[in-house]
Amino acid sequence: MKLLCTGDLHVGRRSSGLPSDEKHSCAAGWSRVVDTALTEKVDVVLLSGDLMDRDNLFFEAAGPLETGLRRLVDEEIHVCAVAGNHDFEALPQFFNPIAGDYLHLLGLDGRWESQIIERNGDKLRVVGWSFPSQHVSVNPLDSFQVEDDNIPTIGLLHCDVDSSDNKYAPTPLNDLKGKDNLSFWLIGHIHLPAQYDGDGPLVLNPGSPQAMHPNERGDHGPWIVELNGKTLSETRQIITSTVKYCPMEVDISSYRIEEIKQSVLEEIRNLRKEQARDTDRVISTRIKITGKSDIYANIRKELSTLETATVNNVHIESITYETSRPLDLESLANGKSAAAVAAQVLLCIENKTLAQEHSDLLKNTLDKMRSVYEANAYVNISDNKSENEEDAPPDEQAAVDILYAQCTALLDALMNGDRK
User: What's the pLDDT tens digit per position in 221-276?
Assistant: First the structure.
């Protein structure tokens, strides 16, 4: 059988950081997925959860989602889906009126459920589990059971693989790999595509078909999987996303002020050349300017005309600056002044000894960051957080980054004060 595998459609959202254009919406992305299924003449479409976006639910998602599903059903293509943490309530309500012989929403109420599909004399079993609520702290595989027979079987699951966060159906990769009677797993939740090969069944996370956020880098689109009996004969991605997010970092340490802008433009041209095959896609970038230079204070003004511009068909979403004046930290670190303490912390960060020499400072910083992250005042933001790294709970590296930025800013302010 020939299968199209995707998930995390989030119909109702659109790619961020771009000028408004309907082709960059997740609804349009879903339509392109359906086009791909029809062109490839697949037998089954598998959807691994979060088809609707929680922020929009029926208001923007229902129409486009139903249109695509009916196009598939009209061609007698089976669709098997599970609900994720974003659409655990909306998806069952949406599916009930339109369910039929070709539409199968599996695993409601957090109970594993199977569906056997027959095509041209071949059989396929899809076994799936849906989120019963927004947060699930147990491993869904604790209750997993499937018949051990000659029918090729696929597992369909929305889960958080090998994560320390236990809110979104935490599932160890080894548990997935341990189900030897499955042909493969199709999972969802993380928007970046990933394949887990090796011993045990393939675990495929197809990622979102439309890249939605600058952290969702690389190629995005549905996957075609072909089964020959219980054996996978082919897995390939078909790129359908209209945007490709590519970060860029430019070190200005060795440039004169009059060279800065041209150097950044040259890096943009190089990025466009690297992505030359993506002529039909928008390349979107976040530029990070780094380095130590005496001209650091003038760089922002020099590059102001490039912010949110489009150059060589590369859209600049933002420019951030992590620059500072060249400082002799060793000399500044002598003494007990505020500047000396800031320099000492920076030296420890650069030498990777902060945890040993300033453990209390690191712990207190991390505790403060976590208390803000978990504060009741921000509960609505927390409940609607995405799977992007920017929304992740602060960890030790985040605390180190904050300390580095603040100590650098403090030294800069103190040095400016010394000059007056």
Answer: 999 999 998 889 889 999 999 999 999 999 999 999 999 999 999 999 999 888 87
Q: Where in the chain is the domain with CATH 3.60.21.10?
A: 2-242
> Do β-strands 310-311 and 314-324 pair in parallel, antiparallel, or remain unpaired?
antiparallel
The correct answer on CATH 3.60.21.10 for the domain covering 2-242 is: yes
- How confident is residue 200, by pLDDT bands cut at 50, 70 and 90? very high
| Among 20, 16, 42, residue whose Cα is nearest residue 208 | 16
Q: Which residue has the higher pLDDT, 201 or 415?
A: 201
Tokens 């600058």, located at residue: 214
Residue in 122, 131, 125 with CA at minimum distance from that of residue 92? 131
Query: What CA–CA distances, in Å, run from 61 to 14, 283, 406?
Result: 12, 26, 42
Could you give the CA distance from residue 51 to residue 389 in angstroms, rounded to a whole number? 21
Query: HEC profile for the chain?
Result: CEEEEECCCCECEECCCCCCCHHHEHHHHHHHHHHHHHHHCCCEEEECCCCECCCCCHHHHHHHHHHHHHHHHHCCCEEEECCCCCCCCHHHHHHCCCCCCCEEECCHHHCCEEEEEEECCEEEEEEEECCCCCCECCCHHHHCCCCCCCCCEEEEEECEECCCCCCECEECHHHHHCCCCCCEEEEECCCCCEEECCCCCEEEECCCCCCCCCCCECCCCCEEEEEECCEEEEEEECCCCCEEECCEEEECCCCCHHHHHHHHHHHHHHHHHHCCCCCCCEEEEEEEEEEECCCHHHHHHHCHHHCCCEECCEEEEEEEEEEECCCCHHHHCCCCCHHHHHHHHHHHHHCCCHHHHCHHHHHHHHHHHHHHHCCHHHHHHHHCCCCCHHHCCCCHHHHHHHHHHHHHHHHHHHHHHHHC
Q: Round to whole Å and give the CA distance between 315 and 283.
A: 6
Integer Cα distance of 397 and 68 in angstroms: 43
